[in-house]
Design brief:
The complex is a heterodimer of chains A (497) and B (103).
Chain A: H1 4-21, H2 27-52, E1 55-58, E2 69-72, H3 74-97, H4 104-129, H5 133-152, H6 156-188, H7 193-200, H8 208-221, H9 231-237, H10 240-265, H11 272-295, H12 299-315, H13 317-321, H14 329-362, H15 373-376, H16 378-392, H17 398-412, H18 416-441, H19 455-473, H20 476-483, H21 489-492
Helix pairs in contact in A: 1-2, 1-4, 2-3, 2-4, 3-4, 3-10, 3-14, 3-19, 3-20, 4-5, 4-10, 5-6, 5-10, 6-8, 6-9, 8-10, 9-10, 9-12, 10-12, 10-14, 11-12, 11-18, 12-14, 12-18, 14-16, 14-17, 14-19, 16-18, 16-19, 17-18, 17-19
Chain B: H1 3-24, H2 28-52, H3 60-91
The chains are: A mainly alpha (497), B mainly alpha (103).
Chain lengths: 497, 103
C-alpha cells in the first residue's frame, strides 16, 4: 500500500475488526499503536499536500463518476491531523481510565470500547477525505453508530437514554440528508462533489428544497441551535475519552460537511438571507449554550453546553463570507472559522478529559465538590485553566487568533452585529470558565478519600491543553497548509456571492 | 401523471407518514418504525429516479445507493432496538421521559 489514503482508512477499520477478536487485555495497546499509526499517515498525507498540492486517490483505480474518489486539500489535511492527534492523546488517557480491572462492569466497558473507538476514528478519516455526497452519508452514519454505541457504553439508565436520544436525532438527520442527496442526484445525475460544483456554477441550477434537506440534516448532526437538545446529555453521560472526542471532533465532522458543501460546492446557490439565517441560529446557539453552561451544577454538563455555544461561532462564518465587494476579510472569516474548529477541538478535548479525571478521582462531578482541586490534582487544575483560557479565547491561545480574524471580518464586511454576538459570547464563556476555576481554587477541607489517578490521564489532558495554546503561538504553518488547494479561492476573490 | 411522478408522490406521502410517526408516537419502537418508513420513502424516490434516468436499462447508481442505504438503515435500526430493550430492562418502560433533566 503506497498511499496515505489507504492507511488512513485501512488501519483503523482493520484494527476495529481485529481488536474485536483479540483477548481483552491486549486491545488497548493495539488501539494505541493504531491511532499513533493513523497519526503518522495523516502527517504523511499533510506533508504531501504541503509539498505537492491537493491529493486525490481513485479507489480500486476507478475514476469518477463510476468509482469513488478520495481527495484531500489543506482543509482536509488539517482536520485529519487534528483528529488523529486528539484521538491519540485520548487513547493514552483511556489506558489509565479503563485500567480498573477490579470492577467487572467497567471491564466489559473497556473491552467493547476499543473496537468502537477505532471504528469512530476510521469513519472520521473517511469523512474528511470523501469527495462524493453518498460517501459522506455512509461516513456520517458510521460515525453516528460508533458514537451512539460509545455513549451507551457506560450503561445505566442515564447513559442509555442519552444514547437513545442521540441515535434518534442522528438517524432522522441522516435520513433528511439522504433525502437531500436523492433530490440532488435527481437534479444533477452525479454524486461527485467536483462534478456537482461544476454543474451548479453560476447558481442557475439551485435545487432549494434539496439543499434545505441536506443542511437541515447536517445542522441537526452539528447540534446547531435549535437542534442541539440531544447533545448535552449525550456528551456528558459518555465515558471521559468518548465525551472528549464527541465534542472535539464528531460535531465538527458534521460542520465540515456543511462548510464543504456550502462554500465549495454550492457557493453560487446559497443566498445571502440563508447565510444570515445560519449566522442567526449560530448566534442563538452561542447565547443559549453559554447561559445553560452558567446554570448547570455538574461539571461535564457545563462543558457539554459550552460545546453548543462554541459550535455557534462556526456558523458565523457564513454571513461573514457574504457582503458587498471584494475583500481579504473573506479569507479571515473562513480561515478564522476553521482555526476556531481546530483550537476548540484541542481545548474541549482537554476540558472533557480533565473533567473525566475529576469525576474519576472524586466519584462525582458536582462543581461544588471540586474544592481543593489545586492540592489534590495540580496537573489537572493546570490543564483545566489553560483549556479554559483557550475556550474563552484569551491570548495567546489559538481561539484568540480565530476570534480576532472573525472580528476583523465582521468589521470589514460591515456587519457589526456579529461582533456584538462574539463579544457577548466571550464574556459569557469567561463567566462560566471563571466559575469552574474559582471552585477549583477554593481552599477547603479535602475530601476524606480520593481515588488515585493514573498519571497518564493527567498528562494527556495537559498536552491537549498546551496544544490549544500552542496553536496561538505558531499559527503560520497551519494557515499556509489551509491555503493549499485554495478550496475557497472563488469566494475569497469575491466572485461567489 | 407519469409513472415517475406517481412514485415520487407516493414517496412524499410515505415521508410525511414516517415523520408523523416519529414525532407523535412516544414509544421508542414506534419511533424507530417511523424512521424506517422515512427510509423507505427515500429509497422509493431513489428507485423512481433510477427509472426516470433509464436509457436501455435503469440507472444503476441509485440502486447501489439504495442497497447501501438499506444496510446502513438496518444496522442503525438494530442498534436502536437493542438500546430500546436495554432501556426497558433498566427503567421498565420503552418511553423516554418528557423532561430532559430527570433522565
Amino acid at each position: 500500500m503506497s498511499s496515505p489514503f489507504e492507511w488512513l482508512i485501512f488501519l483503523p477499520f482493520a484494527g476495529g475488526v481485529i481488536t474485536f477478536l483479540l483477548p481483552g487485555k491486549s486491545r488497548p495497546w493495539l488501539a494505541l499503536l493504531l491511532t499513533v499509526g493513523t497519526f503518522a499517515a495523516a502527517w504523511w498525507l499533510a506533508s504531501d499536500v504541503w509539498r505537492e498540492g491537493p491529493q486525490g486517490y481513485a479507489l480500486g483505480g476507478w475514476e469518477a463518476p463510476l468509482g469513488i474518489n478520495l481527495y484531500a486539500d489543506g482543509l482536509s489535511a488539517l482536520l485529519l491531523l487534528t483528529t488523529s492527534a486528539v484521538m491519540t492523546l485520548a487513547s493514552f488517557y483511556s489506558l489509565g481510565y479503563f485500567s480498573r480491572e477490579a470492577e467487572a462492569s467497567s471491564w466489559t466497558e473497556a473491552r467493547a470500547f476499543v473496537p468502537l473507538w477505532l471504528f469512530l476514528l476510521g469513519s472520521l478519516n473517511a469523512l474528511f477525505v470523501s469527495r462524493d455526497l453518498f460517501n459522506l452519508y455512509v461516513a456520517l452514519e458510521l460515525l453516528t453508530i460508533a458514537g451512539v454505541a460509545l455513549v451507551a457504553l457506560a450503561g445505566g439508565a442515564t447513559a442509555l437514554r442519552a444514547g437513545m436520544r442521540y441515535l434518534l436525532a442522528a438517524f432522522l438527520a441522516s435520513l433528511l440528508y439522504l433525502m437531500g442527496v436523492a433530490l440532488l442526484y435527481g437534479e444533477f445525475g452525479v454524486l461527485d462533489l467536483a462534478l456537482i460544483a461544476e454543474a451548479a456554477e453560476g447558481g442557475t441550477r439551485a435545487p432549494v428544497i434539496a439543499l434545505a434537506f441536506v443542511f437541515l440534516g447536517l445542522g441537526i448532526k452539528a447540534a446547531l441551535f435549535p437542534f442541539h437538545a440531544w447533545l448535552p446529555h449525550a456528551h456528558a453521560s459518555a465515558p471521559a475519552p468518548v465525551s472528549a472526542v464527541l465534542s472535539a471532533l464528531v460535531v465538527k465532522a458534521a460542520f465540515y460537511v456543511i462548510l464543504r458543501l456550502w462554500v465549495d460546492v454550492f457557493a453560487d446557490s446559497v443566498t445571502a438571507p440563508a447565510a444570515q439565517a445560519a449566522g442567526a441560529l449560530g448566534a442563538a446557539g452561542i447565547l443559549w449554550g453559554s447561559f445553560q453552561a452558567l446554570r448547570e451544577q455538574r461539571l461535564k454538563l457545563v462543558v457539554a453546553h459550552s460545546t453548543v455555544a462554541q459550535v455557534g461561532y462556526l456558523f458565523l462564518l457564513f454571513p461573514l463570507l457574504t457582503g458587498v465587494g471584494e475583500g481579504a476579510w473573506r479569507f479571515d472569516a473562513w480561515a478564522g472559522g476553521v482555526y476556531h474548529m481546530m483550537s476548540h477541538a484541542f481545548a474541549k478535548g482537554a476540558l472533557f478529559l480533565a473533567a473525566g479525571t475529576i469525576l474519576y478521582a472524586y466519584g462525582n462531578d458536582q462543581i461544588s465538590a471540586m474544592r481543593g482541586l489545586t492540592r489534590t490534582l495540580p496537573i489537572t487544575t493546570v490543564s483545566f485553566g489553560i483549556a479554559g483560557i483557550a475556550l474563552v479565547g484569551l491570548p495567546p491561545s489559538g481561539s484568540f487568533i480565530a476570534k480576532w480574524m472573525l472580528l476583523t471580518a465582521t468589521i470589514e464586511s460591515a456587519q457589526w452585529w456579529w461582533a456584538v454576538v462574539i463579544g457577548a459570547g466571550t464574556l459569557l464563556s469567561g463567566a462560566y470558565v471563571y466559575r469552574l476555576v474559582s471552585a477549583a481554587f477554593t481552599p477547603d477541607t479535602l475530601p476524606e478519600s480520593i481515588r488515585p489517578v493514573p498519571r497518564v490521564m493527567e498528562y494527556a489532558s495537559l498536552i491537549l491543553a498546551l496544544t490549544s495554546l500552542g496553536l496561538g503561538l505558531r499559527a503560520a504553518e497551519p494557515f499556509d497548509l489551509l491555503e493549499v488547494g485554495a478550496p475557497f479561492s472563488m469566494i475569497v476573490a469575491g466572485v461567489g456571492t | 401523471m407519469s409513472t415517475f411522478e406517481l412514485y415520487a408522490a407516493l414517496a412524499a406521502v410515505l415521508f410525511a407518514v414516517g415523520l408523523y410517526g416519529f414525532f407523535v408516537r412516544q414509544e421508542l419502537v414506534r419511533k424507530v418504525v417511523g424512521l424506517n418508513i422515512i427510509g423507505a420513502a427515500v429509497f422509493l424516490l431513489l428507485i423512481a429516479i433510477a427509472y426516470r434516468n433509464r436509457g436501455d436499462f435503469a440507472d444503476p447508481v441509485p440502486h447501489a445507493m439504495v442497497l447501501t442505504g438499506i444496510v446502513v438503515a438496518v444496522s442503525a435500526t438494530a442498534l436502536a432496538l437493542a438500546l430500546a430493550r436495554r432501556i426497558e430492562d433498566e427503567t421498565g418502560t420503552r418511553r423516554l421521559p418528557e423532561d430532559e433533566e430527570s433522565s
